[in-house]
Amino acid sequence: MSTPLQASSVATRCVVVIPVKPPAVGKSRLGGLSDEVRRDVAEAFALDTAQAAASTPGVEAVLVVTDDFRLASSMRALGCEVMPDGTSENLNATLVQAVAEVVRRWPGAVPVALCADLPRLRPVELAAVLREVAGHVAAGRSAFVPDRAGSGTTLYAAPAAHFDPRFGAESAARHRSTGAVEAGTSATSVRTDVDDLADLGEALAAGVGPHTSRACEGRVTPLG
Q: Which keywords does this Swiss-Prot/TrEMBL entry list (predicted)?
């Protein structure tokens, strides 16, 4: 039986699930931006996250869950699969529903939930994290990546039959309380979600994906 310590020897075959709120209502904490710019920036975050995930070795497919038809079309253009969000008022229920679709369409793949606000995401770092979490899942364990602040979660993976995400307030502690193993602690781009203008300023300084760069150019003056 594989163990987490042997994660590098486990064949990584993952389906990354990215839930995305309609950009018109997403990223409400990006105060100071007009509604139009905030919408464009929220959409850009999701597109850069999905594009990086789709480019990551070991990712068989990216499944985006959204009710926004325009965003769905853009995601399909990137090569992602898209499904509607049947339980949009409950993120964790949304993810459980999506994982049922993963089991149906990609049997045997490791289901991985990934937040949509990671415009700095680097495929090489995500690939390393996926190898690590695949080792835990092969051993029957769930795993999560805490955000940079340490209280939230940016990624969660588990065997499909035991997929039990706990996103929400203090999600890192909530995942830890279920026995989920902490992973990816050195993967900066996987841990750096963007919630407010200060976060965005740091992300822009460090380098973001092309969609976010275009959406912010000449339109955003972040706090930093």
A: GTP-binding, Nucleotide-binding, Nucleotidyltransferase, Transferase
The pLDDT tens digits of the residues spanning 79-132 come to: 999 999 987 789 999 999 999 999 999 999 999 999 999 999 999 999 999 999
Structure tokens at 66: 């959204």
Does residue 224 belong to any structural domain of this protein? no
HSE-CB at 104 with a 13 A cutoff on CA atoms is 7
Specify if 5 maps to a domain.
no
Residue 41 belongs to domain with CATH number: 3.90.550.10
118: domain range? 11-216
C-beta of residue 171 within 8 angstroms of C-beta of residue 152: yes
What DSSP letter does each residue of 76-130 carry, written as one string? HHTT-EEE--TTTT-HHHHHHHHHHHHHHHSTTPEEEEE-S--TT--HHHHHHHH
Inside any domain, residue 162: yes
Dist CA 94 CA 158 (whole Å): 15
* Three-class DSSP category at 62: strand
Q: How far apart are CA 218 and CA 172, in angstroms?
A: 35
Contact 162, 171 (CB under 8 A): no
Q: Give the pLDDT confidence score for residue 11 in this predicted structure.
A: 60
> Among candidates 149, 145, 154, which has minimal Cα distance to 181?
145
Distance from C-alpha of 169 to C-alpha of 221, rounded to nearest angstrom: 28
Q: What is the largest CA-CA distance in the chain?
A: 53
Predicted local distance difference test score (pLDDT) of residue 22: 83
Instruction: Provide the whole-model pTM.
Output: 0.92
Domain count for the chain:
1
